[in-house]
Amino acid sequence: MIVKNSERQQGFTLVEVLVVVVIVAILAAISVPIYLDYVEGARAADAQSTMGAIFNGVKMYRQQYGRAPADVEELEEFGILTIDDATQRKWIFQLNAIADDLRTGSIQATSTDEMRGGAGQQVRYDLSEGRFYGYGLPPEGAER
């Protein structure tokens, strides 16, 4: 004689719960690095935008004075460039060996302690290549 249990068991089995946990872990392992790269890129975008404004200021300065400025402070002193306080607290900008013809040299941004990604992160714009390198960007030679 077979006795049927009329009560249904409710809930999930241990195997079902483990399968769900494994799937969530795999999705997290895939998505977290992508998210962190995205956050770095967003932080670097602030520096890139300012570096673009600095380069435009360098071009205006050269047109007006016939030479490249010595540093970013010179652009600010002559009223050609204004960098907002929030950006200045997070990044330090430098002009590196910019030739008077503006074909060689670079503009570099180095993060300060106030930048959430940490101090010492660098973004560089190479004038001869017209390309950004460094923090928040794919490594040299890699495509995104």
Summarize the structure.
By secondary structure, this protein is an alpha+beta fold. The protein has helices spanning 14-65, 72-77, 85-90, and strands at residues 91-96, 106-111, 122-126, 131-134.
Architecture overview:
- By secondary structure, this protein is an alpha+beta fold.
- The protein has one domain (21-134): 2-Layer Sandwich (Glycoprotein, Type 4 Pilin).
- The protein is built from 3 helices and 4 strands.
- The chain has helices at residues 14-65, 72-77, 85-90, and strands at 91-96, 106-111, 122-126, 131-134.
- A 4-stranded antiparallel beta sheet has the order 1-2-3-4.
- A hairpin with a 4-residue loop joins strand 3 (122-126) and strand 4 (131-134).
- The termini are far apart.
- The relative contact order is 0.13.
Radius of gyration, Cα only, in angstroms? Answer: 26 Å
Helix amount, in percent? 40-55%
Number of helices: 3
The tally of domains stands at 1
Which CATH architecture would you pick? 2-Layer Sandwich
Low-confidence stretches: none
Q: What percent strand? A: 5-15%
Q: Average pLDDT, to the nearest integer?
A: 89
What's the CATH class label? Alpha Beta
CATH topology: Glycoprotein, Type 4 Pilin
Number of strands: 4
Task: Please give a handful of descriptors for the protein shown.
144 residues; Glycoprotein, Type 4 Pilin; four-stranded antiparallel sheet; 15% strand
